[in-house]
Amino acid sequence: MQVLRAAGHFAVREGEPNQYREHFRVADLSVGTYCIPVGGKDGQDPHSEDEIYVVVRGRGRLISETGESDVGPGTVIYVKAHEHHQFTEVTEDLSIVVVFAPAERSRE
Q1: Residue 104: which residues within 8 A CB-CB, separation 6 or more?
Q2: What is the pLDDT of residue 11?
Q3: What is the DSSP track for 64-77?
Q4: Model-level pTM greater than 0.90?
Q5: Is the pLDDT of residue 89 over 80?
Q6: Which terminus of the chain, N or C, has less C-beta within 10 A?
Q7: What is the H or E stretch that residue 53 is in?
């Protein structure tokens, strides 16, 4: 067992548009925290792995090829591999636990 104590904690340096920190990695999955401050920009490209987003803190909107949804604490969203998606309209600092399966960038 491993406790991921930093998972979900908001940590963006002043002036940064967003931040991703990986907390755990094995071949079949990885876990990290993606943080976007109010007014921050989500510049991510589609990933080659499936993703689960668990919103821990904040509010915004997730827009993808297959739909869009407001997000807030407790929202859980699945995004399939290669699907274009972006967080927008961040009205409260977002902290999102991200689970990649398999591990992020392992299919590149």
Answers
A1: 22, 25, 30, 32, 47, 49
A2: 84
A3: ETTEEEEE-TT-EE
A4: yes
A5: yes
A6: N
A7: strand 50-64
What's the pLDDT band for 55 if we cut at 50, 70, 90?
A: very high
Per the structure block, which two tokens stand in for 13?
């340096």
Task: Give the percent of the chain with pLDDT over 90.
Answer: 80
**Please, which residues have CB within 8 angstroms of residue 73's CB and are 6 or more apart in sequence?**
55, 56, 57, 58
Nearest to 9 by CA among 56, 42, 53: 56
Total Cβ atoms within 10 A of residue 86: 15
| Alpha carbons 108 and 87: distance in angstroms, whole number | 23
What SS3 class is residue 105? coil
DSSP letters for 4-35: -TTTT-----TT-S-EEEEEEEETTEEEEEEE
Query: What's the fold here for domain 19-101?
Result: Jelly Rolls (2.60.120)
DSSP letter at 48? S
Task: Tell me which amino acid residue 89 is.
Answer: E
